[in-house]
Design goal:
Elements lengths: L2 H17 L8 H28 L7 H18 L15 H24 L10 H32 L4 H24 L6 H22 L12 H16 L3
Helix pairs in contact: 1-5, 1-6, 2-5, 2-7, 2-8, 3-4, 3-7, 4-5, 4-6, 4-7, 5-6
């Protein structure tokens, strides 16, 4: 991933967070459609790119790392309280301590998922085909971006609702925005991530993505009914279709 990828990671989070300053109340229905699209895309690239990449290496018991990533996300959500899924309504008037707890969870998650972007490991299934490896990296990048935008938006609303000053909210947003680029930088600079090491981290990220995507997609709009609206279904189909296009 070059400088353009780092710029996209940083700018999109800043833009998503900045939107939180201009709304008094999140439009839940529209936000759900954005999340459904993003969740479907993340699920698509997980199946089409990350799973073949990870399990194609033949590393014994690599699936345990995927399971570990799934449960790590569960643990991180004890801190973030689902803000990465843009669960804002449950955090109105949250305390400052609780908001910092959310920040810690989000930043740890963002840092971890940025590492594979800079790993450049030797096991890539597209190693002999740079264009395939480029598709894989770009798909992962956009998967991260698509769930960081609503997460940044939700984070800002939580911080404002916690009584933080605008200056402090901007500082927190900047800290969140640099986490994934910082993870990518670590992936570039650390030798361990240029071999099988990046595959293990990628497996953890896959587990995290599976948790995020399924949480978003399996949330039903009417409690007690196993159904979703047509707009949400269309958003999911578009997200999956876009993920499919990345393999060509």
């Amino acid at each position: 991933m070059g400088y353009w990828g780092i710029a996209i990671l940083f700018v999109t989070v800043m833009v998503g967070g900045a939107l939180g300053f201009f709304v008094k109340e999140a439009n839940t229905s529209k936000l759900k459609l954005v999340l459904s699209f993003g969740g479907a895309y993340i699920f698509g690239i997980s199946v089409l790119h990350l799973m073949p990449e990870i399990f194609g290496t033949g590393i014994p018991r690599i699936g345990l790392w995927v399971i570990g990533g799934f449960f790590l996300q569960l643990i991180l959500e004890q801190f973030s309280q689902g803000v990465e899924h843009a669960h804002i309504h449950a955090h109105k008037n949250a305390s400052g301590r609780f908001a910092i707890q959310i920040m810690i969870g989000l930043c740890l998650h963002a840092f971890l998922e940025g590492i594979p972007l800079g790993g450049g490991n030797e096991f890539h299934i597209g190693h002999d085909h740079p264009e395939i490896m480029g598709n894989y990296t770009n798909a992962l990048l956009w998967g991260i971006v698509l769930h960081k935008i609503p997460a940044a938006f939700a984070l800002v609303l939580v911080l404002i609702g916690s009584g933080f000053s605008k200056k402090l909210v901007w500082l927190c947003l900047i800290a969140f925005a640099i986490m994934s680029p910082l993870g990518a930088f670590l992936g570039v600079q650390t030798d361990w991530f240029h071999g099988s090491g990046s595959i293990y981290i990628l497996a953890v990220v896959l587990g995290s993505f599976i948790h995020i995507a399924t949480t978003i997609l399996f949330e039903v709009e009417n409690k007690g009914h196993h159904s979703i609206s047509w707009p949400k279904l269309i958003a999911i189909i578009i997200g999956i279709a876009l993920a499919i296009l990345t393999i060509f």
